[in-house]
UniProtKB/TrEMBL annotation:
Name of this protein: CBM20 domain-containing protein
Keywords for this protein: ATP-binding, Nucleotide-binding
Stretches that traverse the bilayer: none
Chain spans, region Disordered: 1-21
Lineage per the UniProt record: Eukaryota, Viridiplantae, Streptophyta, Embryophyta, Tracheophyta
UniProt domain CBM20: residue ranges: 24-138
PROSITE patterns hit by this protein: CBM20
Domain of life: Eukaryota
Amino acid sequence: MGTGMSKDADGGSHGREEGEENLDHAGGQLYVSLKMENFKLKGELIPHVYGSVPLVGSWDSSKALSMERESASMWELSFVVPPNHETLDFKFLLKPKDSNAPCVVEEGPNRQLTGGTLQGESRLAVFKNGDEILEYRAFIKADRVSPFDLAASWRAYQENLQPSTVRGIPDVSINSTPMAGAESGSSVSLELDLEHYVVPAPSTSANSALAYAANNAENPRFSYVDGPGNASFSYKDSGVSADRPATIKEMEVVIPDPSKIYSGSGMVESKSVGTFSPLQKQDGHRGLFVDRGVGSPRLVKSPSSSTFSFDLKLDTHTKNSMPAAAGAVAAAAVADQMLGPKEDRHLAIVLIRFGTSFYKSFESLDSGIYIVLVGLPVRGKTFTAAKLTRYLRWLGHDTKHFNVGKYRRLKHGANQSADFFRADNPEGMEARNEVAALAMDDMIAWMQEGGQVGIFDATNSNRKRRNMLMKMAEGKCKIIFLETLCNDERIIERNIRLKIQQSPDYAEQPDFEAGLQDFKSRLAYYEKVYEPVEEGSYIKMIDMASGHGGQIQVSKTFSFLFFPLI
Ligand SMILES: Nc1ncnc2c1ncn2[C@@H]1O[C@H](COP(=O)(O)OP(=O)(O)OP(=O)(O)O)[C@@H](O)[C@H]1O
Ligand SMILES: O=P(O)(O)OC[C@H]1O[C@](O)(CO)[C@@H](O)[C@@H]1O
């Protein structure tokens, strides 16, 4: 695993380790860890970092990232920057804890990381606070990280997260209330706790109590904010059997016309697989929570390749045809496969890919990105949107999830019958397009206030709707369609049942079978007119949850996002 240069204020520096791999081609990114130490301070002044990239506030002190107290005298912050950042300029600053007094920026020139190496002499961080001079020792460390490490770190972060310590965004809730009964059987009342929720995943037992992920999406700005969407709802669980685990061999990455997209060589070989041993886990490796709302990335690496060996069984054809980006994706898949449940695993592959491509596209796009979900109902769009939001926030990108279903429920009530969703029902169509436009307006407004990634979650199931969204985004932001497709009837049936149990749409429907019939009619109306994405920039996730393999397709027009990977 490659290691960058590390320096501290005493001038100690550690050169790159032998055997370093150049991970740029594998989507290697720069993990930056900053620390400040001062034994005398009492904590009225909170150290922050700001700098030249959006991740650290683009020199806007109000967007500076807060450092967290690691010990009585040490403050810490870590984040990951793209490898294409030739130079990252930054400075430390101090913000008064409980007042609006101006912040104090450190003296001296900007600190500069170029290609992962700290430029210039290391120095103390010196602040002039009125007549007072404050001095901190500064520790700056940069490491190149592979998708392996990122996937493993993400997994470790999620597994060790303590919900009670989450600030800023509601992230996960681990407490589940065991309950009896399945399917249409017993139900428990679930007070919707906006601070804690779980992204619904197929349950492997009848014991998980999950809140509906869409409820945690961005609240509409229009006047229905305090409406029915914030109410609690009833929840029933189902018993669903676990699918068999997938293997990396089953994962297929399809990139149309790769010659036009990538010129990179073959599979990325990784000698070090980032993971953690059970022992390390017990150390209490925890995410640290910073002001951007989620834990800042903590690297989890295997001490050596011998600790964990994994046989990457890709057939010759796949190996030879796999471009560098796909290699990175596969690498992430390997790391993730070892660590998580099936759906998370598959999704992580896409996430790593997103993470990589976003990093590489952000700076050139400047204005941020809209990810527009596309897919029939119960294809995992909300699940994917919620996971993507969390992952991108963890990486440091200001990300928000806009769920159109939530807007629809607030404006038109939760208990619309299937007829509402008929394509030949003009009032229904108009109402749906109207709430979609409201959500899009909110997303655009949020983006203009400095947001970086907006995730727009609706079926967006026909070209006309997608054209409307593209028109609204024109000149403002690039849209990437993310289509989730599922051909496995068994999964669809399971998802439908979960939907009747979990969705606020059916909270008032006491008759499970009636709810089921209504939702199936809704689905049939959608299926009749569904138009898969063929336009614009898109990624298709096909059968990712089947357990029998999956496909990721990336459209040609998306290629520019991957350009730096080539
Ligand atoms: N890629 C996938 N394919 C199929 N099902 C998935 C996928 N990812 C997650 N799921 C499962 O699908 C179920 C429904 O998910 P979700 O509510 O996200 O669907 P949706 O597409 O947003 O539905 P709707 O359009 O009705 O709101 C969840 O239980 C989730 O575990
Ligand atoms: O208007 P569209 O694009 O169908 O999408 C919004 C709808 O998608 C759904 O998630 C489909 O079930 C509804 O909750 C929501 O009203």
